[in-house]
Structure formats: structure tokens, C-alpha cells
Amino acid sequence: MNGGPACTHSAVPPVSPPSQEGWRLLAWVAAVFSLLLGIGMAAGYWQVKTDEPLSSPRLKQLKLALREKPADENLKQQIRQLDLQLRQRYFRHLARTQAGVWLLLGGVAVFLYSVGRVRRGQKRLPVLTARTTPGAHSERMAALGRWSVAGAGAAVGMLLFGLSFGITSALPEKTAEIDRLLGGDAAAGAVAATPDAASPDELRRNWPRFLGINASFASCSNTPVSWDAATGEGILWKVPAPSAGFNSPIVWGDRVYFTGGKPGQLEVFCVDANTGQVAWRQAVANVPGSPPEPLDIPESTGYTAPSVATDGRRVYAIFANGDTAGFSLDGRLLWTRAFGALKNPYGHATSLITWQDRLLVQLDQGESEEGKSKLYALEGRSGRILWQRPRKVGGSWTTPMAVEVAGKAQVIALAVPWVISYSAVDGTELWRVDCLNGEVTPSPICVNGLVIAISPSDKMLAIRPDGQGDVTASHVVWSAEDNIPDVTSPASNGELIFTVTTSGLLTCFDARNGSKVWEHELDEDCHASPAIAGGRMYVFGQKGTAFVLEAGREYKELGRVPMGDSFHASPALVNDRIYLRGVSNLWCLGSGPSKLARQP
């Protein structure tokens, strides 16, 4: 035997190789890292979940308060700031989550790989060793492995820390920029700054939409009782209609607005309210996204059945092909938007309305199960969508109503089977009533704080508008079922409600309880809705007869004038004048020197 140290099979427990110790420690670090990261991600998820931008209790509370006080600028500013903070926090969370997922996957992968290496190294083999204890070299290698793994873990932890706090929001800092980024359908976009629109007093003095803003009841008191189409007495002017169309005129200041035309030639017209001469006419053409082919629409409706609307700063028009446009009052095109071909067997006839500086567009079409119907609120200045709400209804031809009632700004929209109220601020549904049948054409009105809605040829209902949810069983105040119109809308002076059917059956109802006061046959078909001013009611027939009646509890005819025209459009009553759109002519009735002799 040589004199070297003897090598034997040692009986002492084997010392783990440095590599085994290192893999075991790395597995522990990876496991702890993954566990802590998972707990942190879960905590972050639940924290953001309780304060999501669209479900934040605080944001909902502020928005409810704004519905009660729609003009409160302080509330609007609070909502915009809170919404911006919530959305920035939310997008920071999304970015952190994305980074955390990759880190978690990496930690789990390291853990599994380390565990595998440890298991492979656990097979016990005889260890050839000297009789002396393990050397300092082995201890240094094990310590080096532990420090290396700890250093790697610390580096990964620092990286996670940096990702969590160094990631910036995906949203811009300025509220105006976030509104543009979110396409306007955010809570921040739902509360505009001071409205760029006319005051309520200005709106009442004019006729800014179909039926005016007060149930076809005009603020003027000296509208004419008689006139003569043959001699021109009582007719301020009469001019040939510059274009075909069944929409009703609106009046703002010394201008009258309406639309006309046919496929390929859709126009908005403005005429001087004092002379009837065209002040400007603008085509709505080449709208991006407009249907390339003409729609199959009956001539009895045409492309221009919807009436225009104004907020006192701009005028808005929509056509049956879905093309929509905004103009300045002097005729400058501001914007266009295409809603696409509207699926409606009779053509689109729902008129536009405004609320503050917003344009409200009700697009009911197709069948309810198709999900094509929507209600939109557009920014008047730009046509940008501020909010949109789906409506699970089919096609309708009625015009919605925007009204401040029951302490809230409400948009009332009708389509089978629902009368639905939405918040004008953000489109949230407030209440609904199941009561409509048939082809809904008559538009709702508001009388003494009650919403009056008509189910064609079926019933007229008065609804208390202070409910929430489905209020069919609790908020219908009264219902009337005699002589209910099928096309025209009702008119009211606050005490009485007047309706006229297509066949010319005129009926007076008591606004308090819906009881019938009187009825009378006019012996002429009517498509134009009646209007009231100064205690008098005006009804214009399809064969050109004008009926002037007392708006009272007894039927009393004050005058009957043949006009030699045909009327489908409803009148506008402003400044003691009556503005009419006939099939052949435009008319202005009132006192003063007639300009008929100067007309072509």
C-alpha cells in the first residue's frame, strides 16, 4: 500500500453538493416570490374592482346628484376629476397586471425547474470521501450559491417594484384629451361645460323643433283668426315650396328652417321669416359611410320626413338614409355623420330634438330582437357622440321629448311596447311603462308634470314621471280609449288635451283625468298635428282647409278657410304668426301688410 491517505466508504451522512443546495434555495425563493406576487395581484384586482370607473359608488352618487341639479358646475367638475382619477388608476392597474402575469409565469417556471433539479440530485450514491471533514472549499461554494440566489431574488423583486410604481397611465393628463380618447361615451364626457345653447326663455319664444317645446302650445296671444287665400288678406307672404318634403318648419328669430329633396339631392333650407325668400340652402352630400344605393322608401314618407331642430346656436338635420348634419345658423356646414341605412318599411320619420347644446337622435329600426335601435346624444358643436344607449325595440316613427320634470332632465322615447325615460345627462334609463301597441307615430307631450303618450288607435295615457324601473303598475295616472289618433300628436293648453284622427275626428279631453269633454267631425282627413295659441286652436287638413277653433270646453268654430294647398306638415306659431309648409307653397299668416304682390 502506498503512503497516501486511505479512501473508504464513509458512514457519515453525505453532504449535499453545492449545486443541490443552490437549487433548493432557488426553489424556495421562486416559490415565495410567486406567492407574494400572486397575493399582491389579487389584492390589486379587488381594490380596483371596488372602484371601477363605470361602477364606482362615489361616481354614481355624484351623477345622481347632478340629475337633481343639472346646472351645478361644482358637481360637474367633481365628476370630471373623479372620473379621470379612476380611469388613470384603472389603466395603471392594467399595465401592472400585464407585467405581473409575465413575472408570475417566470417565477413559477423557475420554481418548477429548480424542484426538478433538486429531485434529480436526491438519488443517494456512495460518497467517496477522505476521513477528514468537508473542506472549506465546499462551504464557500454553498455560501456562494446561497448569496447568488438571494441576489437574483432581490433583483427580481426590485424589478417588480419598479414596474409597479414606474408605469405611467395610458390616459392623458388633461380632461379634454381623455374625452377625445374615450370617444365621448365616458362619464367625463357626459357632463359638459356651460352649454353653448339658447336659454329656456329663448326656446319658448321661438319654435325650435317639431311641435315646439311646450306641447304645441305657443307663447304668443294674437295669432290670426281669419285670412283670405284669394285676396291675400291676413297672409304676410306665400312662396312656392323650393323642394318637396313632409317635414314641419321650425322658426328661430327671423329665419325659418326645413329640409327637402330626393335621393342624391338632400338639402337644408333657410328662408327669411319676413319675406319667404331663400336666405341659404345647403346640400348634405358625400357623407362618409352613407349608403351607396338609394333606399326603398314609400313616396308618402320620402327622404325628408324628419323635421330639423335648433339649439339656438346651430341647426341640425337628418334624412331617411341616416345622413345627419350640423350647420351654423347662417348656413356654414359644421359636421356630418352617417348612421347608415335605416331599416324601416315606411322610411325614417323621427324628428330631431335638442337638450341644452346636445342633439338627441332616436333611431328605432328593424325588429326588437335585431338590436338595431339606439338613442344617441351628440355634441352640437362637433357631432361627436357623447353617449349612446341600445333600445330593445323595433321601428317607430314618433319623435322623442326632452323635458325637465320631476326634478330631472328626462328624454322620453316611445316604441312598442315601452314608454321609456332616460337621463338627458348620461342616457341612464330612469323608468319605463309597458303600454304601447301598433305602429307608434304620435309623439309624447308633457302636461302639468305628466307625460302624455299615445298607443295609436288604442289608448292615451298620463304617466307620472317620478318612478324608477318598470312602473307600469304604479305610475299610470289615467287612460282614455275613445277617439285615439293614429298619426297626429296631441296638443294641450294645460287644462285640456286636443287630438285629431286621420279621418278628421277632433276630440277634447280633460287633462286632469282623461275624460272626454267633446268630439266633432271635421269632414277632412288630417295628418298635421293641431297647435294652440291665444285661446285658439288651429287644424290644417290634407285638402287645404284651415280650421280655427276655440280651445275650450265646448266646440266652437271661429273660422274655416280654404287655402288651395295640401297640408301634411304641422304649423309653427311664433310672434303672432303662423308658418306653414304646404305641398305647393310656404305660408306666413298674420297681421300687417301683405307681400303677396311681390312674390313670383
* Spatial order of the strands forming the largest sheet: 16-17-18-19-23
CATH superfamily of the largest domain: YVTN repeat-like/Quinoprotein amine dehydrogenase
Reported CATH architecture of the largest domain: 7 Propeller
Per CATH, the class of the largest domain reads: Mainly Beta
Count of runs of 4 or more consecutive helical residues: 7
- Fraction of residues in H or I helices: 10-25%
The CATH topology label of the largest domain is Methylamine Dehydrogenase, Chain H
What structural class results from the helix and strand content? alpha+beta
β-strand number: 35
Specify the overall morphology.
elongated
Q: Biggest sheet, in brief?
A: 5 strands, mixed
Task: Outline the low-pLDDT stretches.
Answer: 1-16, 128-132, 163-192
User: How many domain regions?
Assistant: 2
Strand content: 25-35%
User: What's the end-to-end separation, in Å?
Assistant: 139 Å
User: What is the CA-atom radius of gyration, in angstroms?
Assistant: 37 Å
Compute the average pLDDT.
84
Please supply descriptive tags for the structure shown above.
alpha+beta, Methylamine Dehydrogenase, Chain H, 2 domains, disordered N terminus
Summarize the structure in words.
By secondary structure, this protein is an alpha+beta fold. It has two domains: 13-123 and 139-182; 200-598, YVTN repeat-like/Quinoprotein amine dehydrogenase (Methylamine Dehydrogenase, Chain H, 7 Propeller). The chain has a five-stranded mixed β-sheet, with no helix packed on it. Strands 3-35-34-33 form a four-stranded antiparallel β-sheet, with no helix packed on it. The radius of gyration is 37 Å and the shape is elongated. Residues 1-16, 128-132 and 163-192 have low confidence and may be disordered.
